[in-house]
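Before a colleague's protein record goes any further, I have to sign it off. What it holds is a sequence and that sequence's fold in C-alpha cell form. My question to you is simply how this chain folds and whether the C-alpha cells agree. Thanks in advance; the entry in question is below:
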Amino acid sequence: MENLDVLVLRTLRDWRLERRPALLVTVVRTWGSSPRPVGSVMALARHGAVVGSVSGGCIEDDLMHRYCDPRGDLHAEHGAPRRLTYGVGADEAHRFGLPCGGTIELLVEFDPGASGLSELVRRLESGRLVQRRVQLRDGAASLHDTPVVQALHEDGTVLTAVFGPEYRMFLIGGGHLSGCLATMASFSGFAVTVCDPRTVHQSGLPPQARLVAAMPDDALSDFRPDRRTCVVALTHDPKLDDLALLAALESEAFYVGAIGSRRNSLARRERLATHFQVPEAQLARLRGPVGLSIGSKTPAEIAISIMADVVAARNGVTLPKSMAIGLARNGASCT
C-alpha cells in the first residue's frame, strides 16, 4: 500500500486527465476530537469513486450525495474553492460520526488542473518535497520545492500544504521475518524493497515488495536513502549488514536498525567504530537490538515490535528508553 496522499493525488490526476469532473477535499481545521488530522486529503469523482478520507465515513457519504446527485448543492459548482464545516452542533456531530462533539472544516477544490496534478505527482515520485499553494479567490494552484516539512496553513487568502514523497523501507535480508515486516510496512504506507543476494532467502515475500538480488551496500547506494527512508538489517551476517549499515548511517534515513542479541549488537558497534571509524554521533543513530520490548518471539511478533518502533520514529514520537529491547530488562533477545 503506497503513501495515501500520493495515491489520492495520482488517482485524482488520472481522473482529470480523462476529463472527469472531480473534487479535492482537504481538512483545514478541526475543533475537539476528529477522526482525521489537519492536512488529510480525499478525492471524489462525479461518477461516485472516492479515494482517501476526511472522516470515519459519514462525511464522505454526505459529500458524495451533495456532489454526485444532480440535486446536490455541490453538483454544478466550479471555480473558487468552497469552505464546508461539519459538526457545529452536537446533533450534527453525532450524525457525522465526529467524536466528543468535534467539528471539522474542509476546503473543497473543484476540478483541479490536470497539468498541475501531473507535475505534482512527478515531483513526488522523484523524491522531492513539494509545497502546493492554492489561491482561495479562484482556485489557482502553484508548486514550489521546499527543503522542510511544514504544517498546513490557511490564512483566508492562500492555502499552503506540503506533500512529501512516499515513505520507503529498505530491508537487508529475505526470509520469513522479512516477509512479515514487508507486509506490515506496506499496509503502513511504505514502499518496500528487500535486498538479499542469497537465492535461498528470496522466496516468501509479499507481492508488493520489490526484490533486489545485489549486495546490500551496492543496492543501497543505488536506492539513495532520504529523510523518508528507513533501513533495517535482518540477516545477522556482517558480510551483508555492515557496509550497508555504514552507508545508511551516512545518509538522511530517519531510521537505521539491525536485529541481533545485545552481544551481537555490541560487537557490530565495535566493528563499525574500529574497522570503519564510524563517529560516535553516527553510531548513536543505529538502533540495535531493533524494536520495542513487547515479549516478541515469533517472526510476526518481532515484525510488530520493529514496525511499531519505525512508525513512532516516522511520527516524531519519542518513546521511553525502557521500551527499547536493548535496554528493557526482560526484552526479547531474539531481536
Remarks:
- The domain at 167-323 is CATH 3.40.50.720 (Rossmann fold).
- The two ends are 26 Å apart (CA to CA).
